[in-house]
Design brief:
Rossmann fold; two-stranded parallel ribbon; alpha/beta; disordered N terminus; 11 helices; 7-stranded parallel β-sheet
């Protein structure tokens, strides 16, 4: 079974998406035309209007009672990020979600490959022990553990997806290259794994069609690469000068930006191909950037 055919196989269901952001919206664009009902939470009234225009039933949360939606949904997707106090969905709704137990068809939690920590450019897979070194990575590892504990106690069909760096429409390097604000920061040995948002959506759809409770999947493409190579390729596609290289030690960066360079690893994606039958639409950043530019034009 190919991922492209996956969402036509299961009967349409009702998806409740906590923190309905960039990746969840891409999934909804696949599900809604196939007859799914999608409810998504957001913190913003303005964003709620955007979601409604996309065919999603918006709910403001925190601030709304989601008990009915939790009771009626067949599938849950959790994208809401944790903070120092833990996972907000678990804080507010663990009892209601846990009560659904095995009656729920599928529960997906979107995590990050940051839970693996730094491997000095080495390879990691889903069986690599978690040793997060950044604050966000530690929060995500804690949230994963919380969801796994709830799933084990209440029989929830939990699936964890560890996402690499996300790019796609509206999240590419082209605008900064055009504006002349893109920087090629070079840290020897530094590599990142990436994933196009449409490939995230097809992996999630494939998992919904082929549930495997307890499964963990890495979501990334086939080509971990230095970040400066991606900027250079974007400039070449635009026919613009490649921004000069800036040594990492000399670059002025925010603490947030600098934290991304604290870890270097190559992430394996064999499991999504073997277990879910996924064929990536964008197996490397070259294919992904070329498609973004073509769509923009």
């Amino acid at each position: 079974m190919s991922a492209s055919a996956s969402i036509s196989d299961p009967a349409p269901g009702r998806l409740l998406s906590f923190g309905h952001g960039y990746s969840a919206r891409a999934l909804a664009r696949r599900l809604i035309p196939a007859g799914w009902q999608v409810t998504g939470t957001t913190r913003s009234a303005d964003r709620a209007e955007v979601l409604a225009a996309e065919g999603v039933t918006p709910r403001l949360w925190p601030g709304s009672d989601l008990s009915d939606e939790i009771a009626q949904a067949t599938h849950f997707l959790v994208s809401a990020g944790p903070d120092e106090a833990g996972d907000p969905v678990l804080r507010d709704w663990s009892e209601a979600i846990g009560a659904r137990g095995a009656d729920l068809a599928w529960l997906g939690y979107l995590s990050t490959t940051g839970v693996y920590g730094d491997h000095d450019g080495g390879w990691v897979d889903e069986d690599t022990p978690l040793h997060p070194t950044t604050r966000r990575g530690r929060w995500r590892a804690g949230a994963e553990a919380g969801w796994q504990a709830l799933a084990a106690a209440r029989g929830l069909p939990l699936h964890i997806f560890r996402l690499a760096g996300i790019y796609g429409p509206g999240r590419g390097p082209f605008e900064k290259v055009r504006q002349g604000s893109a920087r090629r920061i070079v840290k020897p040995g530094q590599v990142f794994s990436r994933i196009h948002v449409e490939d995230i959506a097809q992996v999630l759809a494939a998992s919904i069609a082929r549930p495997d409770p307890g499964a963990v999947y890495n979501l990334c493409d086939d080509d971990p690469a230095p970040p400066e190579d991606v900027i250079a390729h974007a400039a070449e596609l635009l026919g613009l000068p490649v921004p000069p290289a800036i040594p990492f030690d000399e670059a002025e960066m925010s603490p947030m930006a600098r934290s991304f360079y604290a870890e270097s690893k190559r992430v394996r994606n064999d499991r999504i191909k073997r277990d879910l039958g996924v064929r990536l639409r964008y197996p490397d950043y070259r294919a992904g950037l070329a498609a973004l530019l073509a769509d923009a034009r």
